[in-house]
Amino acid sequence: MTLSLDPKQWMRWLTGDLTPAILAAHHDTIEETNARRLRYAATLGLASGIGLLLASAGENFMSSQMGVHFAFSLVMLVLFSFVPTARDHYRNATRMTYVFMGACYLFAILNSVVLFRDQQGALICVAFAVLPMLVTDVFWRCVLPGVIAWPIYAVANMMYCMPDVRVMNLLNTFVALSIGIMLTRFNIENRARELASRDTLVGQRDTDVLTKAVTRRSGEERIKAILERGDVPCAMIMVDIDNFKGINDTYGHGYGDKVLEMVAQLLRDNFRSTDLVCRMGGDEFMVFVVAVPEDNWIESKAANLLMRLADTPAPDDRDAVISISMGIVLSPRYGTEFDELYRKADHALYNAKRAGKNCYHLFGAEAL
């Protein structure tokens, strides 16, 4: 960022208005990263607390040093036990990280103003500089615990620390807090750029160049991940362009490509942005519909797609007759595994073809 006196530019820099959208789009990945960092930090904190506790074991247990170390070890043990490890619980990782940061700030403040009052507050300086980088989140939320901890430490420092180090403590901790804020900002920006770059690469790898639909391999991986959750009703729709070989033979493969592009666009327009449109190969597509409200809804979508295709002029206004056949299977009613659903949807597609094409067939029902 170029230096400027424009307050709006500095406010945008401080609030990180360019990154929340990217971070929100990768919520699960961010939470997984935060959980892993938190578990490592909690392990290190627990080991440090036990080490400090053993180092001061020769003193009275009720002494301030012993008590603070014991409390820190206990808090780290509790936090370690609550660190999310299962994917279903990653959504709690960021919240737990803030609890961890608060506990570490409190421990560092107690050490700096109770145990080592004549020192320069090195522990709290390290905490200000390092702790915000444990969590990737909206910028102001990352630095807020430190911003809150600094005035608390400043008051405690003026009340309890030795007079000859008070001013230096305030200066050192303020510099450390500023460094932590800067490092956190650049950490989040780099993380956002990394995720955006990965999105671009994954998008190029997982998107069919011609139709812009998801590739077969990527679609299968995503569908399996959705089915593993098993908490929402879904539908798998196999789509095949009728007489596509005849279209290629009559009008050429270049025209056939235009037909594929048109059908793929109609599929995207007819279904929701949350539904997955995949090109399975050749003239065959798959639409995986997530969170089907009811059976009639998916049938109305299929019927509407047939009508929209019938009303859409053929590419280049030629007299080619373009229609599709569809096979539909519902999950979890008729299966919860990808291979099982694929087989049944393909069987339903076969029945639609046998019924005369330009129609859809719902697995478990008669051709419609």
Describe this structure in words.
The chain is of the alpha+beta class and 368 residues long. It folds into 2 domains: 7-205, no CATH class; 216-362, Reverse transcriptase/Diguanylate cyclase domain (Alpha-Beta Plaits, 2-Layer Sandwich). Helices cover 63% and strands 9% of the residues. It has helices spanning 7-15, 20-25, 27-55, 64-82, 93-115, 122-130, 139-160, 166-206, 216-229, 244-251, 253-270, 295-311, 338-354, and strands at 234-241, 276-281, 284-290, 324-331, 360-362. It has a 5-stranded mixed β-sheet with strand order 2-3-1-4-5, with helices on both faces. Strand 4 (324-331), helix 13 and strand 5 form a beta-alpha-beta unit. Helix 4 packs antiparallel against helix 5, helix 5 (93-115) packs parallel to helix 7 (139-160) and helix 11 packs across helix 12 (295-311). The longest helix has 41 residues, at 166-206. The chain is elongated, with a radius of gyration of 30 Å. The mean pLDDT is 84.
